């Protein structure tokens, strides 16, 4: 076969073009640090890279969610800790006041401190984190506690009571609730000027007909309040029954769930009715009013110490439940960190170039290219200009 000058030229130029292409690929890898810069260079690497990048993006979002969860739970735990201390202080004051040797003025001064502690607890219930109310379920833009709706008295609901028809009252038909000794009572029946309230079971939420408060002529001078429990009747003072509006404390029971892993969500909020409930503030107001009444006996104040113990137990139980969720969040956090390391390593192995290898191949390709240029310059026939020189 006859080899012509034209064939040598074309082949040499083709090899030089291929050498340039190799140099360009290696230089792109060295500049970008990636194996490919276009999907067409290696579709398999490109498709795997898309999946791996999705995993890394998910893990990054989970890390942001974890920061939000920690912020929410840390604030909730700190608030519950302050609430525990405040209730403990109220209990100490109740113990101190449960002494018949204390004078009217001394108990009145204690009542002032109880009032300040109650107002402090109301502010704790309205704690905000990242401009969100953390004790109002999913309604994070509205304060869960409205202090003006506590202790409105029977005079404040007289219009509502007088407007009700006689007979059984459908639950939810009234806008107020009674509290007495850590328990809530809602209106169940009306007969003339007599109103019967039934206890709300704290576990089931059902009405208990075995424990009722019957009020005759509420708000009038001849008002009478009777507590009926399992067949036994006890007459109560007006200050022992606290009348509050239903919306004094939010009843939003919806949980705030945040996804921390694929398909794994954790509730991060505390339901207000579990801690800062109507009966919680009702007990504080009941104690405050008892301290302001000079006729209150030490025995009655001693019973109220039990109310504080019950409310403190509710806070401790809710805090323990929050702590259990916090421990799980920490375990999920460790798992997310491990997944992030694995996802980034897998993505790196798929698309990152081996820089040492690329440099070695680039140096080798440069030497080959120089040798090709040198050999091509010798093979190509001299031009007319070479003869003229």
TrEMBL record:
InterPro entries to which the protein is assigned, alphabetical: Flagell_FlgL, Flagellin, Flagellin_C, Flagellin_N
Gene3D superfamilies: f41 fragment of flagellin, N-terminal domain
TM region positions: none
Coiled-coil portions: 73-127
Subcellular location: Bacterial flagellum
Domain Flagellin C-terminal: 306-385
One Pfam family this sequence matches: Flagellin_N
Domain of life (superkingdom): Bacteria
Keywords attached to this entry: Bacterial flagellum, Cell projection, Cilium, Coiled coil, Flagellum
Domain Flagellin N-terminal: 6-140
Family: Belongs to the bacterial flagellin family.
Name the record gives this protein: Flagellar hook-associated protein FlgL
Organism for this UniProt entry: Evansella alkalicola
Annotated gene: flgL
């Amino acid at each position: 076969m006859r080899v012509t000058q034209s064939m040598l030229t074309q082949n040499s130029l083709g090899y030089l073009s291929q050498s340039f292409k190799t140099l360009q690929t290696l230089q792109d890898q060295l500049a970008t640090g990636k194996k490919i810069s276009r999907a067409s260079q290696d579709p398999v690497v490109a498709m795997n890279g898309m999946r791996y990048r999705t995993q890394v993006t998910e893990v990054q979002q989970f890390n942001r969610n974890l920061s939000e969860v920690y912020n929410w739970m840390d604030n909730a735990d700190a608030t519950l800790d302050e609430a525990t201390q405040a209730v403990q202080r109220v209990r100490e004051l109740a113990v101190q006041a449960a002494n018949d040797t204390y004078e009217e003025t001394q108990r009145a001064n204690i009542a002032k401190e109880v009032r300040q502690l109650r107002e402090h607890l109301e502010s704790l219930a309205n704690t905000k984190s990242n401009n969100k109310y953390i004790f109002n379920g999913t309604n994070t833009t509205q304060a869960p506690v409205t202090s003006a709706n506590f202790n409105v008295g029977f005079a404040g609901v007289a219009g509502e009571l007088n407007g009700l028809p006689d007979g059984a009252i459908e639950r939810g038909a009234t806008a107020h609730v009674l509290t007495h000794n850590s328990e809530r009572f809602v209106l169940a029946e009306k007969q003339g000027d007599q109103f019967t309230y039934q206890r709300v079971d704290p576990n089931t939420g059902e009405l208990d007909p075995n424990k009722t408060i019957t009020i005759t002529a509420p708000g009038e001078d001849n008002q009478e309040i009777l507590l009926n429990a399992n067949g036994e009747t006890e007459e109560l003072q007006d200050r022992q029954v606290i009348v509050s509006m239903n919306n004094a404390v939010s009843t939003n029971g919806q949980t705030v769930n945040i996804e921390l892993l694929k398909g794994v969500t954790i509730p991060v909020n505390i339901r207000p009715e579990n801690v800062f409930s109507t009966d919680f503030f009702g007990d504080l107001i009941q104690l405050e009013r008892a301290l302001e009444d000079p006729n209150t006996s030490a025995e009655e104040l001693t019973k109220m110490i039990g109310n504080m113990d019950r409310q403190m137990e509710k806070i401790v139980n809710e805090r323990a439940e929050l702590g259990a969720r916090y421990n799980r969040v920490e375990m999920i956090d460790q798992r997310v960190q491990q997944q992030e390391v694995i996802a980034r390593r897998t993505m790196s192995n798929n698309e990152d170039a081996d820089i040492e290898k690329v440099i070695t191949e680039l140096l080798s390709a440069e030497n080959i290219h120089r040798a090709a240029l040198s050999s091509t310059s010798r093979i190509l026939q001299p031009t007319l200009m070479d003869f003229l020189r």
